[in-house]
Specification:
By secondary structure, the protein is α/β, with parallel strands linked by helices. The chain has helices at 17-27, 49-62, 76-79, 104-121, 135-144, 159-173, 211-215, 218-222, 224-230, 232-240, 246-261, 308-333; strands at residues 7-12, 38-43, 67-73, 85-88, 127-130, 154-156, 180-181, 184-186, 194-196, 201-204, 207-210, 269-274, 286-294, 297-300. The termini are far apart. Bound molecules: nicotinamide-adenine-dinucleotide (NAD) and (2S)-2-hydroxybutanedioic acid. Its EC number is 1.1.1.37.
């Protein structure tokens, strides 16, 4: 990319509630850096075009110098044309009482169509982040229908779960969240996910201590803490009557920023990525794993301690993803 040239960034579901927070953060340089200008590609469906018109007025009124233009469209071929990065947010959110996989039959077809469009129109090194639920399986389907783009370029968002877990640990310890490092989310962005602090640490002045030792309450860590993170999305829906948006947008920013700029030495983040058999996870699923990133390439962190307790949890969430994959393929082939 030539110095000073804008990158093209697509946000789907651009008239929705997550996009409303996300677009301003992208436009402000929070994802691709304060020097990187952007052309925003904003995709939504015809009934949402009036709202999107208003969002575009607000983009103008933000008066942010990094925004070199925007494309507002209902056409995937325009939305995905030559894009460098894709935030695939547009999909139906769940309502109270639903599991995310209940959205599968409604949402998965969107990701088939968008995979095909990415395949035809996007740059071959496009970085794709799927936010729309069920995020892991939607990312898998999107990648399946975009065979000319490397599978490594399709990821699903579990960063919100990581942020929730790190925040809960910090709160319990009375520390700032920036002191908590290397919490891992394994598996599906669903109630079977495993938020794992066995390998996480707490930074203290001049030293570092394991989260386990710092909290010193394995009963809490192995039951209430896990359940709270697994069901946090549902708790937000119950309270707000709408799913998380502000925190979801921030997590999407964190995910793409780290993919773009890299992780620091000795630290990792969680992303739903294509599994290669590491940690006994079946190959070919989009499964949340610990990754370190440099030169815009993620790498699965190897050698983390997996106890029998953890292994059972890893297997359970893999089983759910295998079932979702089968159901999604059936929906797409129907
Ligand atoms: N992975 C995560 O951590 C995470 C977190 C929060 C929400 N989500 C999911 O993100 C999705 C969006 O949530 P939201 O709160 O912004 O929903 P929303 O209903 O406010 O917005 C969704 C937008 O997508 C649009 N849309 C629908 N079909 C589309 C299509 N085919 N192409 C383009 N746009 C389309 C809708 O018109 C709407 O404007 C939901 O599926 C939600 O469950 C995921
Ligand atoms: O829980 C949901 O349905 C929305 C989102 O996936 C979340 O985790 O908040």
């Amino acid at each position: 990319m030539a110095e000073g040239e804008p990158i093209r960034v697509v946000v789907t579901g651009a008239a929705g509630q997550i996009a409303y927070s996300l677009i301003s953060m992208i436009a402000n340089g929070d994802v691709f850096g304060k020097e990187q200008s952007v052309i925003l590609h904003l995709l939504d469906i015809p009934p949402a075009m009036g709202v999107l018109e208003g969002v575009c007025m607000e983009i103008d009124d933000l008066a942010l110098p990094l925004v070199k233009g925007y494309v507002k469209t209902t056409e995937p071929e325009l939305a995905f044309k030559d894009v460098d990065a894709a935030f695939l947010v547009g999909a139906m959110p769940r309502r109270e009482g639903m599991e995310r996989k209940d959205l599968l039959s409604a949402n998965v077809k969107i990701f088939k169509v968008q995979g095909e469009a990415l395949n035809k129109y996007a740059k071959k090194d496009v970085k794709v982040l799927v936010v729309g639920n069920p995020a892991n399986t939607n990312a898998l389907i999107c990648s399946f229908y975009a065979p000319s783009i490397p599978k490594e370029n399709f990821t699903a968002m579990t960063r919100l779960d990581q942020n929730r877990a790190q925040s809960a640990i910090a709160k319990r310890l009375g520390l700032c969240v920036s002191n908590v490092k290397n919490v891992t989310i394994w598996g599906n962005h669903s109630s079977t996910q495993f938020p794992d602090v066995f390998n996480a640490s707490v930074k203290l002045p001049g030293s570092s201590k394991s989260v386990y030792d710092s909290i010193n309450d394995s009963q809490w860590l192995e039951s209430d803490f896990i359940k709270t993170i697994q069901t946090r999305g549902a708790a937000v829906i119950q309270a707000r009557k709408m799913s998380s948006a502000m925190s979801a947008a921030k997590a999407a920013v964190d995910h793409m920023r780290d993919w773009w700029s890299g992780t620091s030495e000795g630290s990792w983040v969680s992303m739903g990525v294509i599994s290669d058999g590491s940690y006994g996870v079946p190959q070919g699923l989009i499964y949340s794993l610990p990754v370190s990133i440099s030169n815009k390439q993620w790498k699965i962190v190897q050698g983390l301690k997996i106890t029998d307790f953890a292994k059972n949890k890893l297997d359970l969430t893999a089983k759910e993803l295998l079932e979702e994959k089968e159901e999604a393929m059936a929906v797409c082939n129907a």
